[in-house]
Amino acid sequence: MSSDVTTGQGGRPSREELDAMSPEELARLAGDLDDVEVVHNTPQYPIEGTRAEKRAERSVALWFAISALSGLAFVVAFIAWPWEYVNVGEPGHEIYSLYTPVVGLTFGLSILALGIAVVQAVKKLFPAEVSVQQRHDGPSDDVDRRTILAQLADTGQKTTLGRRKLIQRTAGLAAGVLGIGTGVIALGGIIRDPWAAGEDAPLWHTGWRPENGETVYLRSDTGIVGEIARVRPEDMEPGSMMTVFPFRESERGNEEELLHAQRASDAPVMLIRLRPGTEVTPRPGQENFNYGDFYAWSKVCTHLGCPTSLYQAQDNRILCPCHQSQFLATEDAEPVFGPAARPLPQLPIRVNEEGYFVAESDFVEPVGPAFWERPKTT
Ligand code: FES
Questions:
Q1: H or E stretch including 146?
Q2: Which of 320, 326, 336, 372 should be mutated for ligand 1, with most atoms under 8 A from CB?
Q3: Is 55 helix (H, G, I), strand (E, B) or coil?
């Protein structure tokens, strides 16, 4: 505490004088010390309890209540609305397609209603006041710091919010629900335990992992769910690229399994046939992952997960359209430009005795930016 507070020097009140003051006197003192002159202050409702005042109060409370209800609807929709992709024409597609609009509308309405409530409270309940303050340089001293709280409390009284329980409750409810909604957004991604399946947790492997010794073929997408197009070397021209997905014979005829294998976010792979004579520097331990001029790299960008589906045969660059990362095929898909920091993971492939491409194993490193995929659901 500085000396002017304890001694009352410089025309300022001493500590004892401050202690003896009422909150109203402290608030008035705060204005005086700040060189604030209240030119005009008229309460909106000089007589308490009029019908007009109650109407204004109910209107403000109504907006706070709308904000709270919308926030609650947002939390429920965010957690419970079916969010998993459903193909067009399949049962549940309409409900799924409404997920984003419902979540956006409820959250937006909650914030909008909160804003309207605050604006209405200021316009309809706060006193009309005009004050003039002289400008000063430098930091606040001890007296200023002590009186500011009293001034704020006094302002609270003058705005009449202190005695409006309905508005206090609805405002608290709206702010609380909105706060919970914001927390749900932040924590939503970790509500499910991605490690629940232990060694089989989907974050540890992709659909390319061979299971029960069954061969995993490279399959192209023809646009028809049940149509199986396994890929052979002669299907591709030199300097071309094809997107492939994992396929097992046990999935043949099972549309649900086929769709599941194709839609998994870590499944798409770029099968690239380099032009003859193109030299590639393999990464240590991955010297045999290719089949001649054929290389299979994950299509999921290691920056933020966009599909890196632009292959330029002239300079052997693989481009990600999202933030312009470039990966050099001749350096085993090392990033050479843009924000991506890791090479695209390479899938080990070979051609089996039938002449089809098959995966030798799963990827040997995480696909995409990191462990970001939600667990698959049953
Ligand atoms: S997601 Fe590919 S560069 Fe950002």
A1: helix 142-158
A2: 320
A3: helix
Q: Pick the closest to residue 76 from 102, 111, 108, 109 (CA basis).
A: 102
How many Å lie between the centroid of ligand 1 and the Cα of residue 303? 5
Kindly report the pTM of this predicted structure: 0.58
- 133 strand-pairing partners: 36
Best substitution site from 297, 304, 337, 342 to test ligand 1's pocket, by max atoms within 8 Å of Cβ? 304
Provide CB contacts within 8 A for 138, sequence distance 6+: none
CB neighbour class for 218 (10 Å; exposed up to 12, middle 13-18, buried from 19): buried
Task: Report which DSSP code applies to 198.
Answer: G
Query: What's the DSSP call for residue 310?
Result: E
Indicate if the pLDDT at residue 130 is higher than 70: yes
CATH of domain 198-359: 2.102.10.10
Q: pLDDT per residue over 31-90, tens digit each?
A: 887 788 888 888 888 888 899 999 999 999 999 999 999 999 999 999 889 887 777 778
Residue of minimum CA distance from atom 1 in ligand 1: 304
Q: Which among 358, 355, 359 is positioned nearest to 233, based on CA atoms?
A: 355
User: What are the extents of the domains in the chain?
Assistant: 3-188, 198-359
Q: Is 296 left (phi over 0), alpha (psi -120 to 50) or beta?
A: beta
Give me ligand 1 centre to Cα 338, in Å: 8
Nearest CA to ligand 1 atom 4: 323
Token pair for 128: 């009309």
Q: Which residue's alpha carbon is at the smallest distance from atom 3 of ligand 1?
A: 323
Is 217 a residue whose pLDDT tops 60? yes
The alpha-helical segments, DSSP class H, found in the chain are: 3-7, 15-20, 23-33, 51-80, 93-97, 99-125, 142-158, 165-188, 255-263
Output the CA 271–ligand 1 centroid distance in Å. Answer: 19
Read off the tokens for 64: 């706070």
Around ligand 1, the residues with Cβ closer than 6 Å are 301, 303-306, 320, 322-323, 325, 338-340
Stretch 347-361: mean pLDDT: 96
For residues 274 and 312, the answer to whether their CB atoms sit within 8 Å is no
Structure confidence by residue, pLDDT tens digits, 168-194: 889 899 888 888 888 887 777 666 676
